[in-house]
Amino acid sequence: MHIDSEQSVIVDSDLIRRYDQAGPRYTSYPTAPHFHTDFDETDLISALQTSNHQARPLSLYFHIPFCEHLCFYCACTKVVTRHHEWGGPYVARLEKEMALYLKHLDASRPVEQLHFGGGTPTFLRQNDLTTLLNSIHRHFQLLPDDQGEYGIEIDPRALEPGTLKRLREFGFNRISIGVQDLDVAVQKAVHREQSLELLAEVMAEARSLGFRSISLDLIYGLPLQTPESFARTLEAVITLRPNRLSVFNYAHLPERFPAQRRILETDIPSPENKLRILAESISTLQQAGYVYIGMDHFALPDDELTLAQKEGSLYRNFQGYSTHAGSDLLAFGMSAIAMVGPNYSQNIKELDAWGERLDHGHLPVEKGIRLNEEDLLRRHIINRLTCDFRLDFAALQQQYGIYFRAHFSDCLPALKQLEEDGLIQMDAEKLQVTPQGRLLIRHVCMVFDAYLPQKSVRYSRVI
């Protein structure tokens, strides 16, 4: 299937105002709030044993929760500390977790994807980082250089000299850097001060070492931002020519994330200014040659994500957009989420409780869910919508044995409304998201989310 990834996204302000409601980002389906504690360690072990027979390749995620500084906007699971010596015991427990996994897992399966997230993975001092990398190499079958998608999140402010070189020698070929905003006043308001010069220096070093992809994250809607100030940030970032850019909406949920209480609501841009920032950013990025991949993500035309979207092979998981579908995702570290076959499991979110479970010889599963056939169908639909902006009804019938209009008859009124409002087009063969509907793809996906009415969950706004 050929996907027209060159189709521009259109910012329809009236449509966005009408549909700008809260909704999931769909890095999984069902989403994490619907996991339950009935799913435990024994369920994960059973899933691992079943997966050995299916012999899918592996994807590994390591959550390094530590940060030296508290960024006020952050909604990640983290531990803020200046105690770098905490890294050693944490790495030792990650080694225990890997060993426990391997009691039930065929580790000869190739690791196609590897990701370090956080927190700040580069919080680890080089000796602890080297210990962790060596342990991963001992336990798992890594691919030769650049055959896998091996990425790590980098904080330029927490990067020891030589760390990038060590990562590259191990096989990492991608880095992701949180920038958020380059305006000094905005940086002070969110407690993340980082210069353009430092960012450029780290990117130049990464390129000289042969990292093949650099992704930068920006956030719009932060305190004291204006359309003019964010335009200056975007202009500076584009001159560095990252391979990928993420432009996220700041979700202000101080009742869930206490650090956000330090942000004055009166400093947050008005909805009108947020929409203007978004619209102007999309226009600027498209003029600079970036392709809108979807869900806040942009990439250069020759990037692997762009090429995968053209081919219809793009995939979305907890690490965002990916070119590696069909892997079993193993997750290590506090709060990390695994996906093994038709199962999700999430680790304990508290550092001490996570470590104590491992010290007693148990996989630290806190909750999870086993997907039924209907879940798998709806997950497939949501994944294809977020990656392709299109559904092929004949392909659904062939793969799942369902007639779209009959199976989803209860969704047809909502889809008809989306069609009347210009977000989608439907005929007997397909559902196609329009250029106006691309920014609201989360809203299109929500039509197929059977769990949304079942539980009151506070999500971020779509735009």
TrEMBL record:
S-adenosyl-L-methionine 1 binds at residues 61, 118, 153, 337. [4Fe-4S] cluster binds at residues 67, 71, 74. Keywords: 4Fe-4S, Cytoplasm, Iron, Iron-sulfur, Metal-binding, Oxidoreductase, Porphyrin biosynthesis, S-adenosyl-L-methionine. Its cofactor is [4Fe-4S] cluster. Its main location: cytoplasm. Its EC number is 1.3.98.3. InterPro entries: Coprogen_oxidase_HemN, Coproporphyrinogen-III_oxidase, Elp3/MiaA/NifB-like_rSAM, HemN_C, rSAM, rSAM_sf. It catalyses: coproporphyrinogen III + 2 S-adenosyl-L-methionine = protoporphyrinogen IX + 2 5'-deoxyadenosine + 2 L-methionine + 2 CO2. GO terms for biological process: protoporphyrinogen IX biosynthetic process. Pfam families: HemN_C, Radical_SAM. Belongs to the anaerobic coproporphyrinogen-III oxidase family. This is Coproporphyrinogen-III oxidase. The gene is hemN.
